């Protein structure tokens, strides 16, 4: 147990310490007090804002209601003078991320004790053992503590894993595991389903496969062999399960790799995270790519892995450009530096609900957003 972070508190005159569980790697609260059903929402909110963890010993359903009350207080407009309007889209993005981070820290202060078998020994507590098993792996018999908000995320992931997401262009469902981003935005799948395949595409690489949805779609389009890569163990297990269930196991091989597998292919597809920023949880690695590491790595290595006459499909939103996190000139310069030329760019407007949400701090950028496939090829296509 000493290899894990510990959370400590005093209860009944005794100092206690157990394993701290946090999927996003946040440290445990430095100060922890025991709380129960007698705690008022105002007091709970004040303590949470101060960074005090509230170790819950009351009714589980009451804890859920208390968390909702804390969230309402966190979302209230401040009484003090309004923060100045952001001077640029980048400022708006940074303020949005900062506010989300502060809100998350506050809501994560309500803590739930977990038994060594992933049971919750609180009144009216649900059975979370399967959800914990999917997220944490097999229980080790050691008691632990996690935030209620994290446990709610585990429950939600478990339910989504069972239900799955209907993918129209596949005619089936994709089931995302905990910590693997679900393909809830369908416009990029529509692009991949309709883009013209290079001639004689017998093999394709799907770089950063995640749930395996693009690999399955390429197989459905008739490509006889697809190699799907990822380096996240959860994504690899998720992709293999989806590919097997969808009936593409003979066509699709899921392998562990940092970007490219060995060899070359006539088609290489990559849908990297779209925003160059630091993720705050494992799930956000599908959205935020620090310093555009994956994007730059794909562009830089693409030419060496393309067969002569082959294409690389870069699936990318331009929202980073509208926010001011990356310019179009920077992207085109990266293509040129890697010896790549643009054959075509096929674009579509997203239709997810946030596009129409005028209260979204990033609404101005979302209203302009396009998702595109950049069809790339080597400038020196005749060279090995």
UniProtKB/TrEMBL annotation:
Enzyme class, first EC level, given as a word: transferase
Pfam families for this protein: MTS (PF05175)
GO BP: any one term: methylation
Matching Gene3D superfamilies: Vaccinia Virus protein VP39
Sample GO molecular function, one term: nucleic acid binding
Assigned EC number: 2.1.1.297
Region (Disordered): 71-92
Residues annotated as domain Methyltransferase small: 174-317
InterPro entries cross-referenced by the UniProt entry: DNA_methylase_N6_adenine_CS (IPR002052), N5-glutamine_MTase (IPR050320), SAM-dependent_MTases_sf (IPR029063), Small_mtfrase_dom (IPR007848)
Domain of life: Bacteria
Protein name as it appears in the record: Release factor glutamine methyltransferase
Species of the source: Pararobbsia alpina
Gene: prmC_1
């Amino acid at each position: 147990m000493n290899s894990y972070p510990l959370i400590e508190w005093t209860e009944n005159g005794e100092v206690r310490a157990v394993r701290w569980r946090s999927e996003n790697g946040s440290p445990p609260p430095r100060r922890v007090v025991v709380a129960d059903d007698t705690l008022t929402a105002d007091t709970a909110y004040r303590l949470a804002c101060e960074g005090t963890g509230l170790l819950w010993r009351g009714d589980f359903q009451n804890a859920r209601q208390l968390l909702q009350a804390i969230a309402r207080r966190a979302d209230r407009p401040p009484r003090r003078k309004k923060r100045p309007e952001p001077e640029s889209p980048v400022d708006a993005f940074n303020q949005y991320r900062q506010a989300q981070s502060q809100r998350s820290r506050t809501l994560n202060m309500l803590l739930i004790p977990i038994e060594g078998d992933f049971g919750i020994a609180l009144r009216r507590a649900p059975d979370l053992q399967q959800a914990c098993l999917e997220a944490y792996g097999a229980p080790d018999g050691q008691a632990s503590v996690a935030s209620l908000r994290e446990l709610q995320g585990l429950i939600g992931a478990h339910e989504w894993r069972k239900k799955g997401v209907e993918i129209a262009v596949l005619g089936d469902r994709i089931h995302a595991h905990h910590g693997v981003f679900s393909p809830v935005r369908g416009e990029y799948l529509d692009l991949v389903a309709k883009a013209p395949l290079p001639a004689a595409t017998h093999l394709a690489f799907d770089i950063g496969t995640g749930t395996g949805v693009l690999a399955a779609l390429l197989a459905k389009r008739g490509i006889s062999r697809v190699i799907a890569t990822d380096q996240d163990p959860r994504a690899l297990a998720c992709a293999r399960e989806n590919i097997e269930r969808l009936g593409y196991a003979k066509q699709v091989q899921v392998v562990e790799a940092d970007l490219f597998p060995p060899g070359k292919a006539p088609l290489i597809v990559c849908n990297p995270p779209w925003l160059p920023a630091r993720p705050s949880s494992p799930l956000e690695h599908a959205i935020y790519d620090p310093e555009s590491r994956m994007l730059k790595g794909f562009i830089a290595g693409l030419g060496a892995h393309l067969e002569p006459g082959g294409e690389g499909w870069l699936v990318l939103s331009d929202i980073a450009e509208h926010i001011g996190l990356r310019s179009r000139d920077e992207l085109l310069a990266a293509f040129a530096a890697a010896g790549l030329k643009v054959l075509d760019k096929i674009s579509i407007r997203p239709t997810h609900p946030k596009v129409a949400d005028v209260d979204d701090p990033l609404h101005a950028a979302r209203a302009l957003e396009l998702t595109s496939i950049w069809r790339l090829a080597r400038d020196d296509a005749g060279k090995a």
